[in-house]
Amino acid sequence: MPETKNLIRLDGKWELFLEKTPEQTFKLLDSGTPADFMSSVPGTWNTEVLYTGKTSPITYGCYRYICTNLNPAKKYAILTRESPGTSCALYINRKLLGQTGDPFAMTKPTFNEKPNAYNPSHSQSIPFYCEFYPDSNGSVEIVFLVSNYFYRKGGLWDAVYFGEPGYVMRTNNMTLLFNEFVIGCLLFITLLNLIQFFINKKKWEYFYLGIASLVFALRIGTADYCSFGFLFPNLISEVKVKLEYTVLWIAPISIIQMIFKIYPSPNRVIIFKWLKEKYIRHFLVIADLLLGISSLIVPAYYSSRLVPPLQIGMGIISVYVIIFIISNLIKHRKYSLYNSISYSMLFLGAIIDIIYSQQKDLMPFSFFPIFLVAFAIIQILMLAAIQNDIHKNTEKSSQELQRLNEAYLRFVPKEFLRLLNKESIIKTKLGDYSNIEMTIMFSKQKFDDSKDDISLEQHFVLFNEYLKQVSPIIKKYDGFVSKFLSGGFMALFPNSETDAVRAALEINDCTKNNTWIGIHYGRMIIGTIGEENRLDDTVISDTVNTASRIESVCEKLGKNIIISQVLHKRISQESTLPVELNELEAIYVKGKEKPLQLYEVTRKTKRTQETE
User: Fold this and answer.
1) Is 320 a residue whose pLDDT tops 90?
2) Which residues pair with 443 in a beta bridge?
3) Which of 132, 157, 416, 498 has the highest CB neighbour count under 10 A?
């Protein structure tokens, strides 16, 4: 062991005494009997077990390695970032220094537990660390007793790190901190996406990315370097491997569901019209889901052996997703660049992780966690871009909706909606009504009938100019135009009777006595009529008909403003109203059996006001 090296990996060939206890191994060594095999570390003993004629790697044995040329006065340490599978005990110079799980249960003659059943666990998965001194000759005999209770691969499958305690512990701490940092990032991404989903439960892509990030965190916390072992010191291997395997089925299902939520394709067909793409996708998802759930339920012996089918399922879904992403990239579909980069990261990381799991001597540690974080971050950036576009579209739609609502209000006055106790036109429906008392005004513009050469277009222009003059006056006195009629309009004044009279006086002044105005007061029903696909607002009452007849009397008598007797009674005591009320002869109007008592309204002259 060169002193210049502070930390080395004891990779290479170790002596393997298969199905020998430490005591038996020491006796064989003392008698000069060679080891059964020279086995590679890191590696598995599956080949050696098959060589002995057995078909299962579930057995026990002792690995032995000798280190020489050490400083007897210096302390050394050993670290395995993944405890040997599935339990182990470490002997240094034939003294037991530590163990994970209970590797001795299998070595007892009475041990008869079936590996493919639910048995009490003897296995544990935590990083393994021990400190020791060499003997007086500067030598260390390292013996690992390994017992594999259920896993499909047995042996000393992780690298053994050897060196001074400070350097070994530093390596351990750096690995732990790195894993915890990656796990923290992934859990933060999980929380962020699940919160986004719970805020808007229609955005399932956030849910699927959150679940994928969660199982990635489980994968980092359990595989290779079991960080969860520090949080849960009694974590048994059977639970650990089942948590580790969730990434093999939950991640691909979540990813394929997420990408097809972003790019839905419910009607796309493959080759045949009856063979829709979604049927194939659903079949893959359901098959992988059933396989994954089975791996959770069955004993760990079967869970371990379901890994190859789960890997095949993950591979098929991965190819499916890759083809879809390439297709989107070729078609220049939105966000396809984000997906192509993020999934390239994920697949590259997965390939590197597979290589690392098969050949751990090729690289010092797995770079898979880095690729996972990169994948999740790029996916978050993509979802943020999607959310930003949604926000822009929502803002644009909101502005369009606001403009549309304003356009509706040009046809249906907001005052009409207020009388119906409706906040928006969206909330109105057929048959909504209110039964109220208020003042109603009918008005018509005077036209010079002697001018026969005036065209319909000119009539139209003149009428619009007239409405531009009078509409602001009506609003000024808290009224609103309910209907535009041929040459005139119908206006409602819900607040006060005097509002209508004041508006009539100002309209008459503004148009230079070029208008007829009839005003009445009474109960009426305002509401929506028509049919479900075509609504209109209306006012129904005898009060409306009477007000219309009063306006026609104005034209007949040549009076600009006439009000009904009902309205006269309500305003006659109003001293602040600057009007003169002149009683007219009772007049018969169409639709009435009795004559109407009407009153002409004129503005008080200065002389009249001075006299008063």
Assistant:
1) no
2) 489, 517
3) 416
